Amino acid sequence: MGMNADLVVMGAGPSGLAAAWRAARRGLSVTVLERADHVGGLSASFEVSGIRVDHGSHRLHPATPPHLLADLRGLLGDDLQRRPRNGRLRIADRYVGFPLKPAELAKRLPPGLLAGVARDAVTAPLRGAGRGGTYAGTLRASLGPALYEALYAPYALKLWGLPGEEIDGDQARKRVTADSPWKIARRILRRRSNGQGKIFYYPRRGFGQIVDALADAATAAGADIRLGTACTRIEPAAGAVVLHTSPGPGPGPRSGAGAGAGPGPGARAVSGDSVPDADSTAEARLTAGRVFSTIPMPALARLVEPGPAPEIAEAAGRLRFRAMVLVYAVHEGGRWTPFDAHYLPGPETPVTRISEPANYRVSADDPGDRTVLCFEIPCAVGDEIWATGDFSGVVRETLARSGLPPVNLAEVVVRRVPHVYPVYETGYAEHLAGLDAWAGTIPDVTTFGRLGLFAHDNTHHAMAMGYDAVDSLTETGWDGAAWRAARGRFAEHVVED
């Protein structure tokens, strides 16, 4: 059977693009299939009122491995800026600096909460390590009831739509880190900081400049990135994988450089007879020696023929992602505040975070007479928030209830994202284990990435998985042992906010 490509990568997010670039540099023929009209997925940037914005708040973490950081510096040069973090966290109706400053915490938090945290610290040995059970049980045991009820319980309900008693303890272990709002208690009690998490890396033209650069580098190395191309069926065969493709859904609302614009800087023209025109319904075939899938694992189960057993397919349907509405408020009159982000864990508003992208960078391209704020609102597809048409009232009400400055609102732009956070509902691990085991049996197909593994990750984790996947693809075949080791490393990471 003739091969169209040594490797086909499904999905042009950070993990898929990193894999495509690394494989193309090794001399492999690589084709990337992306159903959207731009690269990057949630890591892409676009313009609102002439200002580059992201899909929520994104940063490149300082824990990025040196070899990955060196590669990105080589691609972006001085545009990859080292920036100080300057956020705020609202707790007990008042703001504290983020990254957390122990002396400020001790002064700003209510005496009752501080007394509760101190009491819980004394009784911590009696509660055990808190390494199992539910999210609520894990955090009550490890950090104490006082902090859990003040911060984590309301935040969990907003972020994942479930009370902590219905969320698996893995959610806490994947999201509670020493350098995020999640471990505020340890900072309070230690009254000192280890200096971690105070800086981040961010490109001059928005976070999406990273995926645009990866895509450009992959293309320059010989990779064929096909935008607007959806995979409709996957047929593993002897020594090859046959993929059927058709046109994707086409440009989304306000895609690319702004309202009504075509694909942005990261978009690449689709070429070649095997890809139909945008208004064609004809399918095309593509044959690959190996397939890397970064699409949601439940979606992969629907594409592969033959698919998983009925009970596994049913379990796949129980894995849920939290959706999010991103509301971009254009504020006239210059910068809104000097802070890069405000975290709002309390129940007074459905918004979990407000970020100001222009404060993440230093760029002469950002206008001085206006700015854009991004309001992140977790939800479920089809619920009341998802269906809301006018968010201007939500913007103003959130600011008033959160004690934040008002905005001189000139425009509101909305994006709805169906797959943002995996929800580790109690029982998820059993559903995921069967699906993951099945995915591991698909000949010549490997799945990874945030969607592909139903996992929380940062951009550097996603890129590392793409590199590791390519490194497991040796001249003598697939190195299963190397890949299992990589999967083990990935399973141990925690996500930094």
List low-confidence stretches. 177-182, 191-195, 251-280
Straight-line distance between termini: 47 Å
Helical residues, percent: 25-40%
Number of helices: 18
CA radius of gyration is 23 Å
How much strand?
15-25%
The chain-level structural class is alpha/beta
Mean pLDDT score, rounded? 86
Shape: globular
What kind of sheet is the major sheet?
7 strands, mixed
Number of strands: 20
What would you say this structure looks like, in words?
The protein is 34% helix and 24% strand. By secondary structure, it is α/β, with parallel strands linked by helices. The strands form five sheets. Strands 1, 2, 9, 10, 11, 12 and 18 form a seven-stranded mixed beta sheet that branches. The protein is globular. Mean pLDDT is 86; it is low at 177-182, 191-195 and 251-280.
Q: What keyword list fits this structure?
A:
497 residues, alpha/beta, 7-stranded mixed sheet, 20 strands
Please summarize what this structure is.
34% of the residues lie in helices and 24% in strands.
